[in-house]
Write a structure and sequence with these properties.
Structural class: alpha/beta
CATH architecture: 3-Layer(aba) Sandwich
Oligomer: single chain
Helix content: 40-55%
Bound molecules: S-adenosylmethionine
Number of helices: 9
Shape: globular
CATH class: Alpha Beta
CATH superfamily: Vaccinia Virus protein VP39
Distance between the termini: 50 Å
Number of domains: 1
């Protein structure tokens, strides 16, 4: 009989930051990170990006081409920055679904949107990006902001997003990426591995989650690789825009 405490050597491994872990453990480890940071997530976003995440998200909304009456899915939507703007733009005849795998992040998102008076056209759904519980050809726009990096099987998630989009619908992937100059890359490395965990320790008493953030960014596919993955998943007209010197990239693909 096999010893259940020993890792099953037949199981494929994946990365969790710089660690190699069995695939079945990654989602749980990611969940622990977001349960731990949920309460201070918005504050940390502003501190770590110097408020720039708001500009990156604004550009995402502009490129989505969302219109009144549209149906929008924001997957890995967390505390609802994108969902809140989409709710205003689709209006009372549209619908926004904020989906996230993590109950703590969803709760912070739901409370925050209610506090800001956003109600009526937003639904909150706990869901895994790899297995979206929505019908085929359902949404005009799907977004995933700073979420794909955390997903274990990214190809499955991209195919699932393609399935739920209507033909002609748009997927927007906002994610950390690869700085376009090596000088910027070096400065960013110093910032990420020194300042991010320190700020995490001081503000959330959790340096480890912010070390994971820095490491997971380095392990995420670069601009061209992600573009290729979107093409392989079946998206058409895939393009990307670098922002802040490639520290962040916005990929867009259309469902044929
Ligand atoms: C860095 S936060 C981004 C939140 C928000 N989109 C934003 O830009 O502020 C990443 C989010 O991805 C969620 N997440 C991680 N893995 C996921 C998965 N497999 N499916 C859905 N959401 C996931 C986490 O729970 C977390 O809320």
């Amino acid at each position: 009989m096999s010893d259940p405490r020993k890792p099953d050597s037949a199981e494929p491994s994946t990365h969790f930051g710089y660690q190699s872990v069995p695939e079945s453990q990654k989602a749980q480890k990611v969940a622990e990170v977001f349960h731990s940071v949920a309460a201070k997530y918005d504050l940390m976003n502003d501190v770590l990006s110097g408020g720039m995440h708001r500009l990156w998200k604004r550009f995402t909304i502009e490129l989505s081409g969302v219109r009144p009456g549209n149906r929008v899915l924001d997957i890995a939507g967390g505390t609802g920055d994108l969902a809140r703007q989409f709710s205003r733009l689709v209006g009372p005849t549209g619908e926004v679904v904020l989906a996230d795998i993590n109950a703590s992040m969803l709760k912070v998102g739901r409370d925050r949107l209610l506090d800001k008076g956003v109600a009526g056209n937003v639904k909150f759904v706990q869901a895994d990006a790899e297995k979206l519980p929505f019908p085929d050809n359902h949404f005009d726009v799907v977004t995933i902001a700073f979420g794909l990096r955390n997903v274990t099987h990214k190809e499955d998630a991209l195919r699932s997003m393609l399935r739920v989009l209507k033909p002609g619908g748009r997927l927007l992937v906002l994610e950390f990426s690869k700085p376009s100059s090596s000088l910027l890359g070096k400065a960013y490395d110093a910032y990420s591995f020194a300042f991010m965990p320190l700020a995490g320790k001081l503000i959330t008493n959790d340096a480890e989650s912010y070390r994971y953030l820095a490491e997971s960014i380095r392990m995420h596919p670069d601009q061209e690789t992600l573009k290729g993955m979107m093409v392989d998943a079946g998206f058409d007209l895939v393009t990307y825009h670098n922002m802040t010197g490639g520290i962040v990239a916005l990929h867009r693909g259309i469902k044929p």
